Amino acid sequence: MKRVWLVGVLIALGAVAKFGYDYFYFDTSLNHKPAPVVTESASPTPSQSETPTGPVLPPTKEEVQAALADMHIPVGKVDGKWGARTRQGLCIWRELTGRDINRNLPTQDEQFAVVAQEDLVLPKDFVVGLNINRTCQSAIWVKSMPSDNSTKSGNGSEATINQANFVITIASTGRPGLETDVGTFKVQWRVDRWYESIAYPDGWMYRPLFFNRGQAVHGSEFDIWVHPYPASHGCVRMLGAFIDSLWASGFGNGSTVRVYGTWSAATNDPQT
Hints:
Elements: H1 2-24, H2 61-70, H3 84-96, H4 108-116, E1 129-133, E2 138-142, E3 166-170, E4 183-186, E5 189-190, E6 194-196, E7 204-212, E8 215-219, E9 236-238, H5 240-249, E10 256-260
Parallel strand pairs: 1-10, 8-9
Antiparallel strand pairs: 1-2, 2-3, 4-10, 5-7, 6-7, 7-8
Helix pairs in contact: 2-4
């Protein structure tokens, strides 16, 4: 009987223990609200207007040289170097875009303008014939002047011309002390062969066209003698192929040769 009673007591105690475990024991982690999960949000993508931009870099030297060459302006080798031929080409470009004529290296604004390939415009004082610029050491052969309608834009200013009307070439005029005279002249006589100078023996001229007493435009024994600076005894040295083209076109007695500008070896390059 006692054993039965003892078993009953143990069962009762077990039940009480079970009740206490279910109702009085608790896990503290279950009584707390779960902590919010913090995730890193992606950085907002800036709008196009908020995109930071650095300074715009000017065109490279090679790009400037290539653009001049595309406009049929002699520039020498496209090598990324500011050489004498590049200065010569820039001088020609300035003249044909209405800028101050000089052989300075380009400003950044000019570099952008060259690459943009602004329209080339013949100055109003150009003549049909050879226009020889002593400042640039260049010559522009104007074959024909465009009509008034083709040289005016809607606002009455000068506009684009057809580059087939003129040819640009390099030249080398008379050196200091023996300068090529400035003025507008007519070809007086010409010699269709190699011709030795009377004033300077052993000074050979290729197919010379004389326009001012003993001064002539002519080719030289070597094209490299057409320097980017004044180097002759008063004549105007030109490339042999260009002289051939003048003869082939009928340029000769009575044709106009205009010489203008002032040579200066000094330059005033922009500060970098």
